[in-house]
Target: FAD-dependent oxidoreductase
Amino acid sequence: MTSLWLHGAQIPARLRLTPGSRFDTVVIGGGLTGLVTALLMAENGIEVAVVEGRRVGAGTTGSTTGKISLLQGTRAQQIAAHHSDHALRAYVEANRAGQEWLLRFCAEHRVPAERVAALTYAQNEDELSAVRAEFAATQKAGLATELLDEVDVPFPAHGAVRLADQAQLDPMALLAALAAEVESHGAPIYESTLVRGVHHGERGDLVVSTEHGELAARKVVLATGTPILDRGGFFARLTPQRSYLAAFAVDEPIPHDMYISAGSPTRSLRRVQGPDGELLLVGGNGHVVGRGGSTRRKADDLVSWARTWFPTATPVHQWSAQDYAPVDELPYVGPVLPGQNDIQLATGYAKWGLTNGVAAAIALAGRRVGDPPDWAGALASWRPSELKALPTATKVNGAVAQHLSAGWLRAVTRHDGAAPAEGCGAVLREGLHPTAVCTVDGTTTRVSAICPHLYGIVSWNDAERTWDCPLHGSRFAPDGTLLEGPATRSLTPLQMPRGTS
Ligand SMILES: Cc1cc2nc3c(=O)[nH]c(=O)nc-3n(C[C@H](O)[C@H](O)[C@H](O)COP(=O)(O)OP(=O)(O)OC[C@H]3O[C@@H](n4cnc5c(N)ncnc54)[C@H](O)[C@@H]3O)c2cc1C
Model:
């Protein structure tokens, strides 16, 4: 399930790391946050390198919807419910700075970005109150939103809040230009180099341990989506949320603007200019990674919805991606531990990282050169408002604990040795050890079902044919290879029992 953007992307492979190299700053992660951070630092004369575990864009950025918007679904009212007006305005200012930087970069580097309006619409009468609340919160935050009683679209819409002059783009075209610009400033990007950890070395430097050797750095930035180091316990303040997307060829006219529903199940729509004409992109059906049953059903349901309202819709690409929702609604950008300024992180964008990620990069680079923007405090990684978020954090972790024990109990005993049917996976108990067995493309594999991050029991994702951890969102290929998440190691491979195929 490769995204529309990754499918057409033509980004040349980047360098292999030379072990023993030393940099002022190593940025871990070659998504939007990492590349913009590296570029802003390099532009300020800082000697920086990017280390990417897979390929540039392989994380969430390469599979996003690609909306560059300050009207972000119902984010403003959610932030307003937890924070002061000042914090809400600072969040919007941060996103405005991110959006302006991004659109300027696109204009200067010939990355097409199309100006369109963004709408948060009510799918039914019940969602109208959320639409009105979003209008009120965005007005308070200084956005020029308007309230619409009618929306001219072929799917159910009972009113909307609208913000003119937002934008949409192909995120891989953006990353390709960013990567080229980072390298033109002499900053290397090392791809296919998984970072396993960061520790303090003997001479006061940080040591970045990768699968291909070590690098030394004075500072490290974790731009890895969810942070890969457990020091600040950020995994306990984030909920990993996976959603589904599909691009359709359609004969019906495609609505011009960008739309997202105010309620659940989420329906997010936009137009995309494909090589053979316009496509309709539909996203939604989000859920916590590894929880909520069959993912195939969620992906299929999105296709049925699109066909109901666009009868000729034919899916040409289907994919899925995940992002991380912070317990107190604002992103976390700053030190991994209070006062530990040599390791910084940026996460918690709640599916609005194309502006938040750039804002995070501006804040990180600004702090590094002693000139942080005024709004940076609202996105701090450690802030007093987190005390207010403790009940939510407790709830999030209560659910995690429940899934930890449920996963271990769910592992069932099975003695027949039969391989799961094609495309299926199951967790079995062999002695005390839960084993994940699946069959994909005719090959049956057995791996340990225990996620190496914090020992959750993985569950089978039947849409993508992966093993997903319901605790903190780590994901693995059928053979156990790490795909994403706070884990930095793969699931342990196990031998097939004799007599099975
Ligand atoms: C379905 C969906 C739709 C979305 N749509 C929108 C949208 O329309 N507009 C919007 O603003 N936002 C949207 N978002 C959110 C946005 O796409 C993300 O917040 C943003 O792309 C995150 O960028 P990032 O650089 O922080 O993370 P990523 O793009 O995930 O980059 C992190 C990188 O770190 C690498 N990495 C991880 N671990 C390691 C390791 N151990 N060693 C080395 N490298 C590592 C990964 O391979 C990855 O490339 C959406 C999110 C989802 C899930």
